[in-house]
Amino acid sequence: MHKRRTSPQRPQKITLSGKNKNTLTPLSVAGFSENDINTLNKSAVSFIIHNLQNQPEEVLVEVWNRGTLVFSDNQAICLPANDSYYWIWDGYGNDDILDTKVLKSPDLLIRLTVRHNESSVVYDCPLNNSAAKVRWLDVRIDRGAYVVDVTLRPSFSYGGMSGQCAAVIAKSYAELEQLAKEGIERFWSRDGRLAQGIGESIITREGEFNVRITADINAEPKMANFKLIDRISARFGRSTSLVLLRRVYYNSGFYSHKLADSGQSANKATVLTSQKFQLTAAHEVGHLILDNFTRFTFRRDYSWSHKGTSTQYTQVALKNTPMPRTGEIDLMKYSDNPVSMQQQWLHTVASAEDVKGLIGLASVVFSLKG
Question: Spans of biased composition, class Polar residues (predicted)?
Fold first, then answer.
């Protein structure tokens, strides 16, 4: 005999074990002021299953989402009469995949199948989970393949065309948006796609993972909006992520004039402009990432000082901050002695710590409905 009940007047119930244990942080990446050894972030959530009966029970614990089994314990729990059991779930399914979209699904539930003698009763315990820090981000971790797929949802709008120049062909908004998307995906991924030794995997308490970034420009909810502006005049347009002023300039006119003066081709100017725009878009969106994972720390200057390489208010590179001539160039740092754009294109990447900070922003708060 098999019955299903959802009434709160049940002989078994489930509760969360405590407020400080209700947040699951993917890969338990450390907070900004912590390190991987002493972090308080948890990669699992604890529940308490209570047996309110005067007799022992066998309880099978499963996690379901929209009629699909996500996770099941290998064997039932033997729960003594009037006793409790701590059940810990790390968010991974039976397929060894953790997906924060699934963890935040409104249809996610814990199912308790209570077996006694020849009968069993099913109790569904709906969850009401939500994003702990930001809503514009999700991660999918395949711990069998050691791959983290990060989906962030940037927001762009057309800021128009600035200036006049007959020699420059304006970009459409669709072209600008696509370039910005590709820039974020290129410079925030750490999966070995760049030059050898650049942007390699991150090291976590749970192992070494490749990180692949997808910038979904169509889905909601989104990050704060940036205007994309095609500046075709010779005057350089400075991009910014300041509130109310967020914009990224495609400086086609500036680079066209600069390269023409040195006898270089218009095609090379287009390539240079596009590469610089992609890098700049990734950098400016990066400020929103850094701002969020340092929000509740005493290091809010981490983002606006470009990790200690610029002044905060005038945004000028500090003296004696050269770009590395070999190895990685940090996407979020400034320099008073940059290398060529070709070198920047091949060697620039978000640092491993900043990418781990991005993953940490995908933390999920667990709660039970009702």
Answer: 8-21
Q: What confidence score (pLDDT) does residue 263 get?
A: 66
Residue 117 has φ and ψ, to the nearest 5°, of 55, -120
The pTM of this model reads 0.92
Reference 146, options 92, 211, 102, 193; nearest CA is 211
The Cα–Cα gap between 286 and 213 comes to 13
User: Between the CA atoms of 12, 14, 18 and 21, what dihedral angle is there, to the nearest 10 degrees?
Assistant: 140
* CATH class of segment(s) 2-127: mainly beta
Cα 134 → chain centroid: 9
Q: Which two tokens stand for residue 153?
A: 């949802």
Tens digits of residue pLDDT in 154-212? 999 999 998 877 678 889 999 999 999 999 999 999 999 998 899 999 999 999 999 99
Structure confidence by residue, pLDDT tens digits, 288-332: 999 999 887 767 789 999 999 999 989 999 999 999 999 999 999
Distance CA 270, CA 29 (A): 40
On whether the CB atoms of residues 14 and 48 are closer than 8 A, the answer is yes
Residue ranges of domains in the chain: 2-127, 137-360
The DSSP 8-state label assigned to residue 164 in this structure reads -
Q: What is the DSSP string of 77-134?
A: EEE-TT-EEEEEE-S--TTSEEEHHHHT-TTEEEEEEEEETTEEEEEEEEB--EESS-
CB 178 within 8 A of CB 156: no
